[in-house]
User: Which sequence fits this backbone?
């Protein structure tokens, strides 16, 4: 859940912003954007300026319309900057992951009374009218005080259910009207539809939180990570109440001495939940993952992806095939093809898990140097990425796409804490080793875990050597060029 902005609350939804008017405004912006890009032509500078203008207008539209529009903007903000969409869009939409205008408190009270009645609300104590967090679909208020326990009350925004239905139809129409590069985007709206229907039932969120907390209890200590306890008596389709977590610190503001520990914990927790338990948090961005000292606190469990055991096992085997200094390109390709089908796209899929897996894709030495710095090879284009995503969904369904998006969120969290790619790959390899063993009905031995970690260390040593050699070659070539120039 995202931290709320201060100031006068704005009512995002209402008669003045019904589905038709929102659709009209969205279509008008599409037409305006098309005209701006047509005017820019092929001029690189004008195209960049147009990107900035359109990104700003899209953000303003999302804030004005709320709900699905903000969800879509948050989805764009989670994408790798400069790959699927221009970097300016990712940067422009980033504030919407944690700074969303809240709904009026009167609307919040109306929902709480309708769901629980006045007598039940009195047991929660005084409710602070200023939300501590506000998201695209709901906001959170603090209650308690005067010796009572402190709770976090999450309340669904008014009219959001009706707005979602209307706005999804608008998005479907837009996707049929606008097909960048000839790609049909309708299936993205279908996936968004399924996610939103799950998120709009807060009883599902309560169940997700309890299942994730139970899983974490078996794999790590409460000092590593925790999930606020759900108060079931106050859980309905439109409200959910948990214990309030005080002293939450955004990851970028965490003390430098705690960042390394938090980064390690984030990598471990999300790799374990996804690969071992099939519980993949759908929104693990900086508005939902905080630090309390050296403990990771995970909020907002409304959206979870639940990959089936065969998918998590296939993903674990692919990770182990890649997380080694001597990967078999044939084995890696075969495993990747179970997700994206045969062809060149199979070489991209492991890179979406980590650029360090480039060695298993038959990558060039230059690509390996890129992997050493944690970036994708230069040859990875929008067309290649889109083909991979489309094929993946056709073969494995939308859940795998959700998992890959979630893991992308996690890598952004690790970037925020300054955590290296090596730590992330170590967490993946350790969790994958345990997942494979458990699929075979046994527990991974310490020897197996140690061997997996050694392979990862050797992989990154190899990548470092390749990067160092290429750097030395570049330096020598530059020196030779200077000598030739002087002699000439």
Assistant:
């Amino acid at each position: 859940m995202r931290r709320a902005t201060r100031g006068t609350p704005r009512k995002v939804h209402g008669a003045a912003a019904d589905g038709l008017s929102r659709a009209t405004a969205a279509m008008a912006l599409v037409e305006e954007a098309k005209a701006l890009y047509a005017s820019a032509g092929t001029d690189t500078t004008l195209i960049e300026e147009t990107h900035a203008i359109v990104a700003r207008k899209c953000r303003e539209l999302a804030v004005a319309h709320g709900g699905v529009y903000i969800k879509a903007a948050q989805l764009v903000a989670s994408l790798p900057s400069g790959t699927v969409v221009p970097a300016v869009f990712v940067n422009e939409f980033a504030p919407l992951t944690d700074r969303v205008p809240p709904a009026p408190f009167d609307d919040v009270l109306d929902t709480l009374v309708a769901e629980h009645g006045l007598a039940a609300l009195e047991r929660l104590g005084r409710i602070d009218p200023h939300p501590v967090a506000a998201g695209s679909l709901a906001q959170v208020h603090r209650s308690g005080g005067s010796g009572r326990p402190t709770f976090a009350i999450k309340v669904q925004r008014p009219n959001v259910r009706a707005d979602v239905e209307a706005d999804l139809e608008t998005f479907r129409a837009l996707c049929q009207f606008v097909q960048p590069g000839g790609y049909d985007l309708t299936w993205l709206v279908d996936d968004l539809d399924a996610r939103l229907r799950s998120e709009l039932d807060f009883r599902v969120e309560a169940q997700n939180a309890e299942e994730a907390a139970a899983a974490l209890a078996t794999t790590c200590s409460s000092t590593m990570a925790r999930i606020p306890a759900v108060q079931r008596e106050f859980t309905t389709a439109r409200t959910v109440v948990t214990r309030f977590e005080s002293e939450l610190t955004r990851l970028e503001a965490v003390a430098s001495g705690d960042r390394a520990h938090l980064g390690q914990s984030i990598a471990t927790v999300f790799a374990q939940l996804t690969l071992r338990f099939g519980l993949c948090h759908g929104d693990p961005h900086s508005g939902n993952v905080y630090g309390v000292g050296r403990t990771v606190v995970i909020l907002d469990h409304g959206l979870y992806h639940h990959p089936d055991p065969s998918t998590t096992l296939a993903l674990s085997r692919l990770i182990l095939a890649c997380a080694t200094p001597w990967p078999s390109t044939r084995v890696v390709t075969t495993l990747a093809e179970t997700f994206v089908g045969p062809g060149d796209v199979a070489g991209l899929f492991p890179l979406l898990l980590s650029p360090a897996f480039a060695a298993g894709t038959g990558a060039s030495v230059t690509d390996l140097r890129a992997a050493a710095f944690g970036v994708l090879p230069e040859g990875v284009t929008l067309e290649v990425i889109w083909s991979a995503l489309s094929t993946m969904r056709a073969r494995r369904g939308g859940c795998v796409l959700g998992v890959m998006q979630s893991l992308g969120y996690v890598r952004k969290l690790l970037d925020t804490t300054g955590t290296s790619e090596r730590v992330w790959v170590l967490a993946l390899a350790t969790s994958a080793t345990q997942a494979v063993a458990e699929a075979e009905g046994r527990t991974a031995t310490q020897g197996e875990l140690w061997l997996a970690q050694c392979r990862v260390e050797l992989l990154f040593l190899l990548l470092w050597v390749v990067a160092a050699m290429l750097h030395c070659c570049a330096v020598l070539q530059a020196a030779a060029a200077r000598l030739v120039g002087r002699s000439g």
Q: What stands out?
A: The longest strand covers residues 148-156. The mean pLDDT is 83.
